[in-house]
């Protein structure tokens, strides 16, 4: 199993939990080895490798699967998912099931379960950032993901798309000034060593699907498939509880132990929200039409777009 993040975060917790459960369910017949820290390639490479049967399993951020399975983008449009509850509602409902089917069709991999990592928070090494204008002159790394690139453009900056596996070094060498990821990921990746400021924003909620190559899944017996699905569902439930139990303590540790300074977004994040949600229509085609976004918003008890 490939993990894009270092040990200690939600991906690793998901991987360890799944590995333990599958070993128990199979009576020791199946074991899973974890390879954290992008050892098996960038997160986007692991999608191709799993689809070609070169890799069995990967846990990666949702934004790194969207380029291969564009309809998943409905869950990464800015400010659609606002909380862990929203993330669970979408992934565990009809929309989540549709994403599983679409991703098998479009990318040749099966989403078995989800790790929940929390809102993506903007970090940088230069200064407190409260408003989009404060980004002026900063070079921000984003994943190679059209939606996220476009969100930053709506805030008036041209971000630098870089693979996750190259991000720490780029921050350390000053090639980029900032990036965004959840508190748990900032901690697991030790970004506090190279970033001083965090903006407590929530433009995208990070979820990390556990995927298996569909060829691999179909090669398993029915009983083995059952073990895999059950272990993944239990690991998903655990991941949700893990996020709720850990996030606040990790946020406090980033400030108190690692000296990060947290800035609240100005005006309740209004300017960030207005500018970023203006890009939604640009992605209606790729997510399967405006109706798909409206379906997601309705599932979250919100008004249509
Ligand atoms: C990214 O920023 O590319 C990913 O969200 C990082 C991750 O997998 O945690």
Polypeptide structure, described:
It contains twelve helices and ten strands. The chain is globular, with a radius of gyration of 19 Å. The N and C termini lie far apart (38 Å). The longest helix is centred in the last third of the chain and has 35 residues, at 222-256. Strands 1-2-9-3 form a four-stranded mixed β-sheet, sandwiched between helices. The protein is α/β, with parallel strands linked by helices. Helix 1 runs antiparallel to helix 9. It binds D-malate (MLT). D-malate binds at residues 4-5, 43, 60-61, 63-64, 143, 164, 181, 185, 206.
Q: Based on helices, strands and strand pairing, what is the structural class?
A: alpha/beta
Radius of gyration: 19 Å
DSSP strand count: 10
In what range is the share of β-strand residues? 5-15%
Mean pLDDT: 97
Oligomer: single chain
Task: Give the overall silhouette.
Answer: globular
Query: pLDDT below 50 for ≥5 consecutive residues: which ranges?
Result: none
Unique ligands: D-malate
Number of helical segments with 4 or more residues: 12
In the sheet with the most strands, the strands line up as 1-2-9-3
**Biggest beta sheet attributes:** 4 strands, mixed
What's the helix and strand layout?
Blueprint: E1 2-3, H1 10-25, H2 43-51, E2 57-59, H3 84-92, H4 94-107, E3 109-119, E4 121-124, E5 141-142, H5 146-154, E6 160-161, H6 167-172, E7 178-181, H7 183-188, E8 197-199, E9 205-213, H8 214-219, H9 222-256, E10 261-263, H10 270-277, H11 284-287, H12 290-299
Parallel strand pairs: 1-2, 5-6, 8-10
Antiparallel strand pairs: 2-9, 3-9, 4-7, 4-8
The structure holds D-malate.
Residues 4-5, 43, 60-61, 63-64, 143, 164, 181, 185, 206 line the site of D-malate.
């Amino acid at each position: 199993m490939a993990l894009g993040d270092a040990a200690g975060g939600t991906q690793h917790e998901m991987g360890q939990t799944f590995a333990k459960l599958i070993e128990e369910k199979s009576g020791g017949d199946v074991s899973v080895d974890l390879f954290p820290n992008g050892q098996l390639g960038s997160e986007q490479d692991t999608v191709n490798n799993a689809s070609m049967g070169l890799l069995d399993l990967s846990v990666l951020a949702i934004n790194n699967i969207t380029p291969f399975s564009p309809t998943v983008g409905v869950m990464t449009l800015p400010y659609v998912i606002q909380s862990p509850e929203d993330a669970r509602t979408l992934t565990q409902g009809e929309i989540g099931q549709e994403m599983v089917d679409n991703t098998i069709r479009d990318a040749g991999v099966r989403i078995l379960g989800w790790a929940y990592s929390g809102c993506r928070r903007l970090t940088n090494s230069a200064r407190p950032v409260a408003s989009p204008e404060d980004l002026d002159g900063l070079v921000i790394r984003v994943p190679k993901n059209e939606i996220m690139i476009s969100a930053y453009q709506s805030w008036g900056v041209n971000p630098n798309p870089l693979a996750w596996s190259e991000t720490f070094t780029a921050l350390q060498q000053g090639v980029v000034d900032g990036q965004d990821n959840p508190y748990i990921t900032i901690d697991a990746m030790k970004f506090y060593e190279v970033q001083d400021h965090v903006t407590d924003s929530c433009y995208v909620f990070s979820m990390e699907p556990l995927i298996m190559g569909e060829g691999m899944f179909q090669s398993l017996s029915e009983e083995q498939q059952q073990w895999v699905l059950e272990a993944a569902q239990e690991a998903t439930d655990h991941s949700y509880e893990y996020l709720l139990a850990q996030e606040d303590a990790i946020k406090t540790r980033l400030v108190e132990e690692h000296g990060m300074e947290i800035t609240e977004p100005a005006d309740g994040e209004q300017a960030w929200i207005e500018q970023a949600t203006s890009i939604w229509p640009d992605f209606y085609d790729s997510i399967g039409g405006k109706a798909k976004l409206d379906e997601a918003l309705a599932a979250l008890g919100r008004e249509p777009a």
